[in-house]
Specification:
- Keywords: Hydrolase.
- Its EC number is 3.6.1.-.
- GO terms for molecular function: hydrolase activity.
- Its cofactor is Mg(2+).
- InterPro entries: NUDIX_hydrolase-like_dom_sf, NUDIX_hydrolase_CS, NUDIX_hydrolase_dom.
- With 151 residues, the chain is α+β, with helices and mostly antiparallel strands.
- It has a single domain, classed as Nucleoside Triphosphate Pyrophosphohydrolase (Alpha-Beta Complex).
- It is 20% helix and 34% strand.
- It contains 3 helices and 7 strands.
- Strands 1, 2, 3, 4, 5, 6 and 7 form a 7-stranded mixed beta sheet that branches.
- Strand 1 and strand 2 form a beta hairpin.
- It is globular.
- It starts with 5 loop residues before the first strand and ends in a 14-residue tail after the last helix.
Length: 151
């Protein structure tokens, strides 16, 4: 695997009133509509916390602060690329009355319980989506202080 096939990504696991925020998007490989957490690549000269807050805002219109992280997930995708994903937890106590995706690639926002997600007709973008929710439901919470700042 070349370095061009290795991707550092972040994801926002947003839980509010026992429901998780998911974005509906089109899978660029299959063309199929899928569900994912707000997520994306870390940009050059961007730290992890800035990246996840940016991705969350771009994909949902929400400006929130993470309270913890769930760890690091890895995926060897069908395109032979490896994705390393850092999952951040957001637990807002309230939400603005209105918010909407800033990114035209996001087709819709969905608030789903774990049960509703399991019964959902739309497929998940990858197993990383359900893995992160499972970790959250297991009570995994790592302190943000474990992520060292860029030096």
């Amino acid at each position: 695997m070349s370095r061009a096939q290795l991707h550092l990504t972040v994801a926002a696991i947003v839980q509010f009133e026992q429901k998780f925020l998911l974005v509906e998007e089109t899978d660029k490989v299959t063309g199929q509509r899928v569900l994912n957490q707000p997520a994306g690549h870390v940009e050059q000269d961007e730290d992890l916390l800035s990246a996840v807050k940016r991705e969350l805002f771009e994909e949902t219109g929400l400006a929130l602060e993470p309270c913890a992280w769930l760890g690091i997930s890895q995926l060897q995708a069908a395109n032979n690329h490896r994705y390393v994903r850092i999952n951040f937890v957001f637990e807002p106590v309230s939400l603005p009355a209105q918010y909407q995706p800033q990114d035209s690639d996001i087709l819709a926002l969905h608030w789903l319980s774990a049960q509703q997600l399991a019964e959902q007709a739309l497929p998940l973008r990858s197993a990383l989506v359900s893995d992160a929710i499972d970790l959250y439901l297991q009570g995994v919470r790592l302190p943000l202080a474990l992520i060292q700042p860029v030096r």
